[in-house]
Each structure stands twice: as structure tokens, then as C-alpha cells.
Backbone:
């Protein structure tokens, strides 16, 4: 049979599934427990939850294990799982200042209001491949002195850099007075021109690599719709999730999730912009994923300034979702012999049309 | 605290009938109703992530799952073949999550989900044809900007499309559009006919059956209601051409009147793309 190699129906599919499952689960190493994944591969779990738009560390770990570590595949498992669940409620609005910070960096000022917290980061760690495994539990032992002047349990309030700039009358005021509902990208596809909430939620769920790629394409590629920003805030920490109690109608905190939040300060220099002011781009995503939140904040302000002049918004809305792009790319593996047969037929038709219209004299 | 969460969440459920939660299915059906009311118009909907990847029939699957009932019988084909791996995979997802019957016989089916083909057998008002759509926008080849595309459809401004067909004809001697040939639906919207071959296009015109198109990745559905005009875009003096096979016959059933696919290299290299039709013809 012509297509026998990839035909064979159910039996072939089941053999393929068994191969994956048996070679994965039957590996002679000790079984991979999900607490190892959540505990030791935290950033991977964070990334999967962010791209899935679902905070569920245990499920994300299970998905990663099932997907043999393929991030897109794990994200797919989580999102498809979410599709089977009804939406039972909507949480209360939270203030980002309610974050319990684990990390806070303010590149724009040497001494911002509140601390700079380096926190859990390899930013300034030499990237030397460690080939020996440390068996004993390491203790956090700073070289000398304490990591901060104040002990960490009395953190002074963190003054948000956008507020600082606003107090200095250096910031465009784009605060809205209406309290409009955010655009829900999981219930209605966003298309340009879209509200900012649609762009932000699209980027919050975007594939990290796609967003970084989109950012860098603008830095060094042919687009160039954005500037390099100055970061006002890079924060990572825990946020409360609060719902209305079904009986008492009081707000009840039912859990926490971690986010990365970024404010990107933009130096306005356009002809129609106020050169005396800054503007701010905003990024926020699940987990600790700073490169994603930074790319998001910078693309947010770039998109606002672009104001529909280019197709940046369409690029952000339509091309950054990991499941969309990977799914469509990989669909090329499906049989296409009906469409290809039609293509061959038209090639022959063009050739015949050429022969008919060609001069009739014979060639040597 | 956790008891409150449990109370709100309710008892844990197994996977619901037809995979999607009821609210989602209702939402898809609403979009489909709008699509039926405005033939050929692309209706946006909140496409869900399915157990199959986007680009692999997730739109068609969502439609089938949204409209399926316990008494339906499903046929799924890919390239005309019930046994193609993707057809098998989609069919088992539908049957395992609903418990409904499956068939390869078109006349036994109530829902026919397909990629790239319309079954050779005549379908009636007893059938709903669900087509998986990779690219729902017929004008994307000539215009990339989504705002402009929206305007062109809204105003019925298809002049760029006509110019493109004209240039194609002038440059190449024939219109080289292969599958997914653009059609005007109900004298109003130009529609992408998925990548079904041109062979299948005339079978959509004034068809007795309802056709639903699902593009999961692009989050659009559209429809051709029964007895609707579907006219391939062409010029008065340039007749629309289906795929020529120049007298080729199916090497298995001898058929000349079906859409044939090619097996390169072999002596008699043509066979029916619709495998169920071919098998039935041979056993008759």
C-alpha cells in the first residue's frame, strides 16, 4: 500500500503509545517522584504553569514526567485538562503590592524605597558546570557580614518605582477611572485592535522562547518597534488568591501562587510624545520567569507606543502561543497526499498550458 | 480553609461526556448557530485546548463534541481514509468519551468528521459534515493585516482576490489554486473551503447536508447551511476545473468517477481516496 508506512490505524497508535510509556516508566533508574520535579526543577515547573495558565505545581510535575520533559507537551496536557473543568468562580482582584517578595531588583535606582533583594538567583553566579554532586545539605553562609543591613523579617515597605516617578511628575498618567472587565482570551479570541488586557494575558501565557524571540527580533531583527527600557521593578514573590465565601460573602484567602512582576520604564522620544515624561510597560506571569516578564513589559509599552501603526500587536496576539505554533508546525507530519495530488495536477496543467501557448516551430 | 475549597469545587468528576464541560459545549453551539445564520462568515469562538494538538483537527473535534448526542453515529476520515492514523485517533477520542457508535459507512453515520475530503457517497439532510480547517481565512495569501481583512469581508471588497486570480491566469495560463479553492457563499462571503480538492467543491453547492467548519488554532467556526449557493470564484470565460485524471482508473475497484490519489512508481498507480467507497464497490 502506498501509504502503508504511516498507516495501520489503531494498532500502530497503540504500539507507539506503549513504546513511549514502557521506555519511560521502565527505565532502570529510580522512579521520578513529582516532589523531586517540583522541588529540584522549580523553574521548569514554573515555566510550564505559566505557559499553561494554570497554577498547579503537582499537576505540572506530573505533566512534565508524562511528557518526558517536553515543555510544550506538558503545557498541552495541562491546558487540555483545564478544558474538561467547568469554571466555578472568579477570584477577587488583588493588588500587586500585596506580594510577599522573595526577590526584588530595581536597576533604575541605587537606593529605591525598600530593599533590593537578590534572593534566589544565579544572576551573579559563575556559570561553571558542576560535575560533582554535593551530598550534604548546604547552608546559606555568606562570605562576610549579612546579606542586608536589616534582618529580612522587617522589610521596609517597597515603594513602587512607577509611584516614585509619578510623585516626581515624570510619568505619563494612563491610570483609568473606569473599572472595566479584563478581556478573557480563554473565552474569546483576541484580534487587533485589542484591549491592553488581551495583550497582557496573551503574553502572560505565551511561550517564553517565543516572547524572548519577539523581543530580540525587535532589537536586532527587521522590525525595530521597541527600545531597550530601564527596569523599574523586577519582583518575584507570593500573591494571595482570594474568593468570596459562598455563605458569608466575605473574602477568603484560599491559597497562594508565585508571580514575577516587572515594570519597564520607557524614555518617550516620539514626535507626538511628551519628551519630558516617561511611560511604563508592565509584565506579570506565573512563577519565577524573569526573562518572560521583562520581554512582556517591554513589548507592552512598545505596543502602546506603536498605536496600531505597525503589525506588532498582531504579532504578539497571533504568534506567541506555544501550543498554536508548535501544533501547526507539527501538523505538517500528518498525511497530505490529497492536497499534494492536487498540487501535482496543477503543475501538469501549467506545463500543458505552456506547451499550448508556445510557438510551434521545432527546436534543434 | 481546604474544606471551603472542597465545598466550592464540589465532588471530583471523571472526564465529562464528550470531554468538554457543558458550558464550553454550549458556547460552541451558540457560535455554530451564528455561523449557520450567516453562511460563510467566520465566527470567532473561545477555542479550547483539546487532547489533540492545534493543527491536528482540534476545531473539527470541538464541533463534533459540541453537537454529538448519545444516539449519533460517527464516521471520521483523513484524506478520505477511515484508517488513517489521525482519523483513528480522533474517532477513538469521540467514541471513548461518548460511548457512541462508529462506522465507516457514510449512510450509517449522522456526523462525518473529515480532513481534506468529502465522502464520495451522496449525503443527505440526515448528515452533518464537520470539516477540519487549518486556515480559515481565504484572503490571507493576498492580505496579512487582520484589520484590513476584516474590512474586506465586511464590505464584500474582494477586488484583490479577483486581481490575484486574473494575474494567476495571465501568468500561468491556468488558475493554479490547488485545494481549498475560494468560493463565494450565498452571494456574500468568500470562504476557504479547507484544503478539500477542487473535485469536492461542486458537491458543496446546493448540498442537502449541513457543513460545519472548525478552525481550532485560529479560533473560528463557519458553516454552509443546506441548499446554499457555493460558487468557486472564476471568470465567465474561464471554467472552473476540478482535478483532471485523464481517464485513470482505481487499480482496486476500477472506478473512474471518484477522486483518485497517486502511488508513484507502481504500474497502475491510482486508487480511490475514499477507501470505504472503494471497498464497498469491490464487494458488491
Residues:
Amino acid at each position: 500500500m502506498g501509504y502503508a508506512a504511516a498507516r495501520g490505524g489503531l494498532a500502530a497508535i497503540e504500539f507507539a503509545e506503549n513504546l513511549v510509556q514502557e521506555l519511560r516508566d521502565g527505565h532502570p533508574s529510580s522512579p521520578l517522584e513529582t516532589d523531586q520535579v517540583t522541588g529540584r526543577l522549580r523553574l521548569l515547573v514554573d515555566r510550564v504553569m505559566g505557559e499553561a495558565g494554570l497554577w498547579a505545581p503537582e499537576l505540572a510535575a506530573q505533566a512534565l514526567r508524562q511528557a518526558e520533559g517536553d515543555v510544550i507537551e506538558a503545557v498541552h496536557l495541562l491546558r487540555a485538562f483545564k478544558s474538561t473543568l467547568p469554571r466555578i468562580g472568579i477570584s477577587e482582584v488583588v493588588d500587586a503590592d500585596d506580594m510577599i517578595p522573595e526577590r526584588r531588583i530595581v536597576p533604575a535606582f541605587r537606593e529605591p524605597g525598600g530593599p533590593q533583594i537578590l534572593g534566589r538567583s544565579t544572576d551573579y553566579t559563575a556559570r561553571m558546570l558542576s560535575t560533582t554532586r554535593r551530598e550534604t545539605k548546604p547552608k546559606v553562609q555568606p562570605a562576610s557580614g549579612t546579606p542586608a543591613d536589616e534582618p529580612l523579617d522587617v522589610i521596609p515597605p517597597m515603594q513602587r518605582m512607577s509611584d516614585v516617578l509619578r510623585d516626581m511628575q515624570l510619568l505619563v498618567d494612563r491610570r483609568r477611572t473606569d473599572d472595566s472587565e479584563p478581556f478573557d482570551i480563554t473565552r474569546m479570541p483576541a484580534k487587533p485592535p485589542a484591549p491592553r488586557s488581551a495583550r497582557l494575558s496573551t503574553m502572560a501565557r505565551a511561550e517564553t522562547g517565543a516572547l524572548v524571540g519577539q523581543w530580540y527580533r525587535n532589537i536586532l531583527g527587521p522590525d525595530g518597534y521597541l527600545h531597550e527600557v530601564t527596569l523599574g521593578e523586577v519582583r518575584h514573590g507570593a500573591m494571595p488568591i482570594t474568593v468570596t465565601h459562598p455563605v458569608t460573602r466575605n473574602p477568603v484567602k484560599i491559597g497562594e501562587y508565585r508571580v514575577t512582576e516587572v515594570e519597564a520604564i520607557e524614555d518617550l522620544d516620539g514626535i507626538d510624545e511628551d519628551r519630558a515624561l516617561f511611560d511604563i510597560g508592565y509584565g506579570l506571569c506565573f512563577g519565577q520567569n524573569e526573562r518572560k516578564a521583562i520581554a512582556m513589559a517591554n513589548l507592552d509599552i512598545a505596543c502602546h507606543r506603536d498605536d496600531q501603526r505597525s503589525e506588532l500587536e498582531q504579532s504578539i496576539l497571533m504568534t506567541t502561543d506555544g501550543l498554536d505554533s508548535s501544533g501547526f508546525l507539527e501538523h505538517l507530519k500528518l498525511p497530505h497526499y490529497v492536497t499534494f495530488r492536487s498540487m501535482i495536477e496543477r503543475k501538469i496543467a501549467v506545463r500543458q498550458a505552456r506547451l499550448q501557448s508556445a510557438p510551434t516551430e521545432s527546436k534543434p | 480553609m481546604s474544606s471551603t475549597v472542597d465545598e466550592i469545587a464540589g465532588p471530583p468528576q471523571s472526564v465529562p461526556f464528550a470531554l468538554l464541560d457543558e458550558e464550553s459545549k454550549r458556547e460552541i453551539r451558540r457560535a455554530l448557530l451564528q455561523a449557520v445564520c450567516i453562511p460563510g462568515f467566520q465566527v470567532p469562538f473561545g477555542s479550547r485546548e483539546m487532547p489533540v494538538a492545534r493543527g491536528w483537527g482540534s476545531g473539527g473535534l470541538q464541533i463534533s463534541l459540541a453537537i454529538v448526542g448519545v444516539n449519533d453515529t460517527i464516521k471520521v476520515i483523513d484524506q478520505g481514509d477511515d484508517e488513517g492514523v489521525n482519523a483513528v485517533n480522533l474517532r477513538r477520542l469521540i467514541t471513548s468519551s461518548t460511548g457512541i457508535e462508529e462506522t465507516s459507512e457514510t449512510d450509517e453515520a449522522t456526523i462525518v468528521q473529515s480532513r481534506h475530503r468529502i465522502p464520495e457517497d451522496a449525503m443527505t439532510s440526515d448528515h452533518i459534515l464537520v470539516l477540519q480547517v487549518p486556515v480559515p481565512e481565504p484572503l490571507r495569501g493576498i492580505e496579512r493585516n487582520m484589520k484590513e481583512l476584516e474590512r474586506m469581508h465586511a464590505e464584500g471588497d474582494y477586488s484583490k482576490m479577483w486581481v490575484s486570480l486574473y494575474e494567476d491566469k495571465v501568468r500561468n495560463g491556468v488558475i493554479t489554486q490547488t485545494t481549498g479553492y475560494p468560493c463565494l457563499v450565498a452571494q456574500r462571503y468568500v470562504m476557504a473551503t479547507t484544503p478539500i480538492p477542487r473535485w469536492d467543491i461542486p458537491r458543496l453547492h446546493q448540498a442537502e447536508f449541513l457543513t460545519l467548519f472548525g478552525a481550532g488554532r485560529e479560533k473560528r467556526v463557519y458553516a454552509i447551511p443546506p441548499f446554499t449557493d457555493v460558487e468557486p470564484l472564476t471568470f465567465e470565460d474561464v471554467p472552473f476545473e476540478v482535478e483532471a485524471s485523464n481517464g485513470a482508473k482505481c487499480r482496486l475497484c476500477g472506478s473512474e468517477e471518484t477522486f483518485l490519489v497517486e502511488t508513484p512508481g507502481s504500474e497502475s498507480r491510482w486508487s480511490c481516496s475514499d477507501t470505504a467507497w472503494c471497498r464497498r464497490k469491490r464487494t458488491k
Remarks:
- The longest strand of chain A covers residues 251-267.
